[in-house]
Amino acid sequence: MLKITDLHKTFNPGTVNAKVALDGLNLSLADGDFVTVIGGNGAGKSTLLNAISGVWKPDYGTIEIDGVDVTNMPEHKRAAYLGRVFQDPMKGTSPDMEIAENLAIAARRGTKRRLVWGVRKAEREEYRRLLADLELGLEDRLSTKVGLLSGGQRQAVTLLMATLQRPKLLLLDEHTAALDPKTAAKVLELTDRIVSEHHLTTLMITHNMRDAIAHGNRLIMMDEGHVAVDISGEEKQKLTVEDLLSLFAKASGSEFTDDRTILS
Predict the structure, then answer these.
(1) Are 14 and 76 in contact (CB under 8 A)?
(2) Sign of CA pseudo-dihedral 235, 50, 91, 94
(3) Strand-pair partners of 171
(4) pLDDT for 105-160, tens place per residue?
(5) 2-96+149-263: CATH superfamily
(6) This prediction's pTM
(7) How far is the C-alpha of 104 from the C-alpha of 124, rounded, in Å?
(8) What pLDDT is recorded for position 112?
(9) Tens digit of each residue's pLDDT (9 = 90 or more) over 26-71
């Protein structure tokens, strides 16, 4: 479903501020893979997601989604293949629009627009059913403006919006990092359920090693713009944080030193 070959990206090339963000990265995801991505600050995690999304054009290498080469495809066109949830709960929704209106925009993504009623009665009933599955009491608040929701509620709505059209690839960019532990656990529980129910191929960046181990069927650890550790199956199920740090040290030749990740 995703094939990345020899991907390179350097910011500010040829200057004293040059920064190699992706350095010959290779990565393939099978249909239905749920891959957690972890790594220190500056390892290239968010740059990877931005390259897949089309925010950055790579200097070299190719990106294919479901057999389609999207490397040079503009961001708005490749959006039809992708769903994305950001770290900031304020992104991904329109705060001054109702929950139902936000969901309607997501449901119409990639379709031609016509002059019709914004949200039809049948759609409201469908949105009510989908929101009820979140178990957050939002099914009775369809007319509430999204900007009035808590961070966790907003991330849950954003997650629902990102998956309404069943994207080829779901990108989760530390989507629980800004939430308190209890709310983060709820959003991760919803993530597992939605990804499993709809068999979504998923890349989830996290700064939390325990979350990276507990969720998904595969874990990759990035270092200096490439994949240093790639673990799946039974090996991942038996993994501990100590094991992961040891594997990283062996693969990279250095200790993992990102305090934010280690302390989480």
Answers:
(1) no
(2) negative
(3) 84, 203
(4) 898 876 666 655 568 888 999 999 999 999 899 999 999 999 999 999 999 999 99
(5) P-loop containing nucleotide triphosphate hydrolases (3.40.50.300)
(6) 0.93
(7) 9
(8) 67
(9) 999 999 999 999 998 889 999 999 999 999 899 999 999 999 999 9
178 CB-side CA count, 13 A: 17
Amino acid at 192: D
Q: Which of 70, 35, 82, 57 is nearest to 204 (CA)?
A: 35
The Cα–Cα gap between 201 and 153 comes to 23
The domain segmentation of the chain, as residue ranges, is: 2-96+149-263
pLDDT value, residue 114: 64
Q: Are strands 226-232 and 218-223 parallel, antiparallel or unpaired?
A: antiparallel
Q: Can you state the percent helix, strand and coil of the chain, rounding each to 5?
A: 40, 25, 35
Q: Which residues is 170 bridged to in the sheet?
A: 83, 202
H helix or E strand, kind and range, residue 152? helix 151-163
Inter-residue contact 54 to 78 (CB < 8 Å): yes
Token representation of residue 217: 């069927």
Q: Are 169 and 203 in contact (CB under 8 A)?
A: yes
